[in-house]
Amino acid sequence: MQITRRDFMKISGAAVGGLALGGLGFNLSPVKAHAQSLRIRWAKETTTICPYCGVGCGLIVHTARDGSGKVINTEGDPDHPINQGSLCAKGAALYQLIVNEDRIQKPLYRAPYSDTWKEISWDTALTEIAKRVKRSRDASFTQKNAQGQVVNRTNDIAHVGSAALDNEECWMLQAMMRALGLVYIEHQARI
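Structure (tokenized):
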């Protein structure tokens, strides 16, 4: 029997392919499949916008229905026209921003010229912030400009938003800062 070089290559290729497929462990006998129960099966779905940049990718946030509001999962919204379910690395890791044991849960205060931080209560922190904002606003508030026009503004306070805020929180902060008369309002995503 005469085998040409071309025939040898065909036979060798078929043999290698057959061995490779056989080595993968194909078994054509029927298999009983078991579906896993998803941890988000009973969760409440809420759509929101990713807080990290100005693109506005849609997210689905799954929260527990037990009233705790605990976030169980975050994922891209496949029905959103901008990202159609896909997320960048920061958006995909948004769950870790919310559920993180290293996240600071209580306000910290560092006294002037001190090198250490100490925990304080939320009441103390919010009262101190309110006093300082009021003192600074009262000292720098301008009701009318040089032409006599009503401006109701303060130039001594500025606000920089955080990349961890969603659109709704940014809107509330913007409204509050404008009500205080702030002119210098910025957001971290645009800096």
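The chain has a mean pLDDT of 86. The longest helix spans residues 5-23.
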